[in-house]
Hints:
Blueprint: H1 2-11, H2 32-46, H3 56-65, H4 70-73, H5 84-99, H6 104-119, H7 123-141, H8 146-150, H9 155-169, H10 171-187
Amino acid sequence: MQQIVDFILELDKLKGVTRKTRPLGLDRYENSAEHSWQLALLASALVPYAPEPVDVDRVVAMLLVHDVGEIDTGDTLVYAEHGWAERKAAERAAVERIFGLLPAAQAQRFLALWQEFEDAESAEARFAHAADRAIPVLLNLNNQGQSWRENGISYDRVVARVGPPIQAGCPALWDYLQERLGAARAQGWFGA
Length: 192
């Protein structure tokens, strides 16, 4: 029991990891715990639009563990263009440490879910990636491009980074977002 309690208390640190997007109607930036919670609910709601059958429990579990490494590494803007190999190696070390607080069987289960998400090869992982890439887009589309403008992120950079994984994991969601991204571009909601 103590190992589980230690793990859960360690996870509380995810609430202190600041991201680059503001929650709607708030002046502060969201944290990674809020992000993971919102993703899990988005994916659960999007299941009817999955292009192939998915185990929603597995998808939700992936989304709840996918950013745990940020406790040690912090968040990186999804539109960053360099240093991804180093970043992923640091995240892997972080999740091994954090999941290692649990009994071995549970640690292995969570690490396997984390790795499945990273590999993005299963139907569940592709669907989870689509949700993960969509949330910042949805928030930006509903706050006049706040993080795109603040971080100088262009329309082309957004589409190049989020389009392929959303299209692969949930084509109906990408169809929905493409139209709205075009309208946001016309409104000038992107950085240079």
